[in-house]
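2024-03-11 09:14:02 INFO receiving multi-entity request
2024-03-11 09:14:02 INFO entity count = two
2024-03-11 09:14:03 INFO echoing inputs for audit
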Amino acid sequence: MRLRPAAAATVVLAVALWFVPEFADGFPIFYLLFAYNVFFWIAQASSWNLFTGSSGYFSFGQGAYYGVGVYTVGVLVAKRGWPLLPTFVVAGILGALLGLFIGLIVFRLRKLRGEIFALMTLAVAFVMGAVARVSSTIDGGQGIPLSGVELPQALGDFPAMIFRLGLIVATLAVLAAQVLHHSRLGWGLFAIRDDEAVAENLGVPTFRFKMMALGISAFLASLSGAVHSLQISYVTIEDVFNIRVPLLVILMSILGGTRHWMGPVVGALVVYTLNDRLNAAGLQDVSDLIVGGLLIFMIVAVKEGLYLRARQRPLRAAIGFAVGIGPPIVLGLTDSAITVMAYGLLGAVLLLMLPVTAPVEEAVPVHG
Amino acid sequence: MSLLSQAVVSGVLAGGLYAMMSLGMSLSWGVLKVINLAQFSFILLSAYFTYQLTVSLGIDPFLSILVCVPLFGLAGMALQWVFNRIRISEFESLLFTFGLFIILESLAATVWTADFRRLSTEQNPYVSESIWIGSIALPVPQLAAFVAAILVAFGVRHLLRNTHFGRAVRALAQDRDVAVAFGVDNGKVSMQLAGLAAGFSALAGVFIAMSRAIFPGLAVEWFGIVFSVVILGGLGSTLGTLIAAVIIGVVGAVATVWGGPPMAPLAVFLVLIATLLFRPEGILGAARRDT
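2024-03-11 09:21:47 INFO inference complete, emitting structure
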């Protein structure tokens, strides 16, 4: 397999980021944790988009895979004392098995596969919550304390360690998305997205391809959830198997754009940053309103997503970012680089969302 | 044994409520090709409106039907108008209404907080009233929901089979383009049906406010049940929805007696999986699907 520039750049960037904690002495730890969370959401959004963006099968089930990851660490490491790193792999495999189970049931249907898959995944997180509640080996409704989990020492102190683990998983997810994009599997999935019946007639092994992509996607989501469990001190069913993870992941991918592997990356950065700043400003209550409103707006007005828009109109994005960071810098709000970045991203996003005035190329309807 | 028979009876009655909750979803998905998650918001908001009207004005909770059903019917029509305008696809409708669902749930949490809200016995005398048949109790709110569900399901069935509006709806469900070519006014008919669907959801909300405590997170818990009912019943089939809802209600109630409340969603999910494996067209099958 040929090494593509994007993959090479990703690896180089990841290696460079790996050494950031070494130079972070005297740097607020907060930045490392913030970066970890961005990595976490990049991994989640990329894994979601890896299946849904390419195949067109819409999944609300991200929370279930994520939850399987968290609970695998909770049960095997916190309760049974398994070593942490091998358990991560087990978590990924269990998540993949859940994904394959759903696929096995739904993909054999002849009609309404897409719709039923979407609603089935919507219900499955709730069912997983019920399973965890019934089974006292998993949870039994009590929750599991995770603070006693023994952490690997080789990766540095806690912020450096979680930063690096998050970086590894995010890099894996992004690389997987890139490889898929240029592989037979990816092309087959794109054909399925455009017209499954035609793809099937042309010899695309649709069932196998969908199962493979769903398995990879669920594996990554669950792996990322397992790593994220280290950040949680006490896991409960309500915190894990809820609708927040799928909601944010869907918004990130739709906002960034589902048609390119960069879309979820951009979306994760923008949504997590803005969400974090809203929470820091004590505006959690409006964040759901904004999330829901943005989702509706993107579906109606910016179907291709922000990344492809920004590539078409890089100047707009740059001007928006500059205009965004202007006021906080002038007003002296520079005590947090994240706030300044949030304003910049907000400026770029808003300017990119303005209607485009190039009717000729925009008149072509976006399929899928 | 009497515990089990009581469970079956409450399951059947719960099925009435599930049918009310699912009819709107089934019609909207089966006929309009809109997967409308906002139906759940309509149910939730209607329940809160009923609570608020009863508490603030001291009216009989049944009377709030007169407010909620027309109000949410109009909301449903307005939403369908928007969908017609932007020519929304099935998947876009799923995402659009998911966004709307999140917004409305968050608004409900802002107005009524995340606390449980329950009508007191003075405001809602029906909650403690039961009709007794031998040793089996039929709680009045659930019984009312059950009767209403049967009336509505057969009413809609009659409407769809025997009226001009119904023929137009069935034509649209079979093939929208051909129906429009033959002169069916898609905009008007789809808005009327969407209003009807939203009205059913509002009715379900009234009964929910009368029978239990409500909180904003409740709506998410309905996804599994309503989805199972809609699939088991067959898309757009009113009679199928009613039968499926009763089956799901009984399965859930018996599973609760047998293994405690968390067993209910598991049992329902198993029914759903079995349906998808062996009867993907719904219990009544494709041949009997003339709504």
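2024-03-11 09:21:48 INFO post-check: Residues 243-356 of chain A form one domain.
2024-03-11 09:21:48 INFO post-check: Chain A has 17 helices and two strands.
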